[in-house]
Structure formats: structure tokens, C-alpha cells
Amino acid sequence: MNPRSLLLATTLGLAAHLMGQTTPCLAYNDVGLNIPSAIYGGQTNPGRVAWLVPAPSTIVVQSLTILVRNQYPAQRGQYLTLELWTDDVATGNPGTRIAGGSWKSSTQLMWQGTNLDLPVAMQGGSSYWVVLTEPGWTSVPSDLQGATAFPNKRFYNNTWNADPPSALRVRFHCNLLDQQGASPFGPACTSSVGRLGTVFTNEVPLIGNADFRVEGSGFPAGSLCFVVLGVIPVFPSVPIPGTASCFQNTDSFTSLVGTTGLGNVRQQTTDGHYALPIPVPGNTSLTGLFFAAQMAAFDPGSTAALPIVTSNALRITVQ
Predict the structure, then answer these.
(1) Which structural domains are found in the chain, ordered by start?
(2) Strands (E) located in 157-208
(3) What is the pLDDT of residues 150-175, one digit of tens each?
(4) pTM of the full predicted structure?
């Protein structure tokens, strides 16, 4: 299925969903909040670790979340990256990257993650590596009492090295990330390198949540980008003339200009990522306030008359 069509069908189905996060289509070790106090921090900077996870049935995954916190962002870095890789059966190591995304990690222990830059059809009966790249000193996202442990590898000395199996706490979502009060709407369009830039949040737009932010991942790195904010709850998806089948998914009440990230998870920005802080004041009169956010970025490899890629929109209602 065309990724654009798949995203359109999925996100339109979620447009009215504002009450809570959609149940993941596959999850392991996601009950409770036990994780080790140990931190990575050692072999490489940034660090990369992987778990081999089976798919019991065929599912199409669009986002991943793990139970984690980044305890020392000021000292080491503030971003995390999650990816799905193939399994190289001959070596028993991660093979090739399929899809992934990045986000600005919270210092609070919480389920957090990212949209993938392509939908991934995980075939039932096959296994895939979930690969985490972290800046150092990130809490290990595994269950201390894990019922389901997976083969675990860490990358250092330019090769994958076996660690003891551990119980990765992971959720596979067959939808773009949503939250209570934050629902994706409309399609993203494919860039010149075949990737999707999407918009999401790991935070709930609660009254008094100073950490609320909208994030984008999967865009061309180091590119001019725009964040469009709208106020019309029922604004439809409208084709944008001159683009490679891109859509405007919210009205343009106002917009901000920035640059997508360029660098690894230890840098001030990370490749293809952009974050817009939108702290919610502690004013109860704002309850029910609606706004929407969409991102667009310059695509340097595009041959379209208007060489941009656009994301889905995120429809947000203050709780």
C-alpha cells in the first residue's frame, strides 16, 4: 500500500479521537513502571543498543514508544532515536534500517517515542530489531521483573556485541502517535528520498503543563521549515498546488519559521527533527481551547515546482 494512502486512511479514522491514547497493536512488558536505575553511558557516544522482538501476527506499524527517561540531558544530550531494523539471520545481528524517528526525551519516567518515517509491515512469524540510539546515561527501558526477555546487543568497537537478554518495555502502534487531547489528522507526503515527515507529541495538553510541545521527525536535515498553527477544528485536507502530492491539513492562523535539526542525539539538534515548545498556562479558562499544528520543510532533492514536504496535522484540545 502507498504510504501516503495508508497514512490518510489511518489518520482520518483518528480525527475525532481526543479522549486518550489509542491502544497499541503489539506490546511487550508494558505493565507497571519498574526499570533499572542503571544507566548506559559507556561504550560509545552516542550509544546504540538493540533488542530482537518477534511479530506474532502481521501488523503495519507507524510509531514506537518505550518506557524511559533521559536523566542528564544538559550533560549528555536531550534526544533519543528509535528505529526498526531487519534481522541478519546469518550473523544474528541487526541488518539494515527500515524506518525510524527521533524525539526530545523527557527527564520524567514515562512512555515516550516517535512516529516512524515510513509505515513498516511487520510480518507475522518474523523478528525485527528495535534499535535505540541514546546520548549516554539514559535509563535502560527494560522490565526488572520482565516476563518476556529478548536477545540484546550493544554496538561498540565498530561491531554488535551480545549483552544478556533483557525485557524491553516497548509498544508498537499501528497509528501515528496520539495523546489525550492530541489527535493526528490528514496525510503526510513523501520526500524525494522516500521518507515521511510527521508531527506528534509525547505530552498531554493539560492546564499547567509547562513541558507541552509539538515535535516533527523524518524531515530533510538542516532544512528551512515552517510550523503552521490553525484554529479551525474541521479544516479539511487540501492539495497544495505545485507540490509532489502534498496537503495543507490545517488553516493558517499564524506560522513560525525554523530549521530542522542537523546532528546526532548528542548535539543541540538532531537530524530532521524540529520541536516547538507550547507551554500551557495554569489558567483553567483555557480548558477546551483548540488549535492545530502542521509542519512543512524545504526538500532539496525535490523536482516539484514548490519543493516542500508537509506533515500530517496534530489537532489539539487543551484539557
Answers:
(1) 23-173 (2.60.120), 182-317 (2.60.40)
(2) 159-166, 170-173, 182-185, 198-200
(3) 999 999 889 999 999 999 999 999 99
(4) 0.91
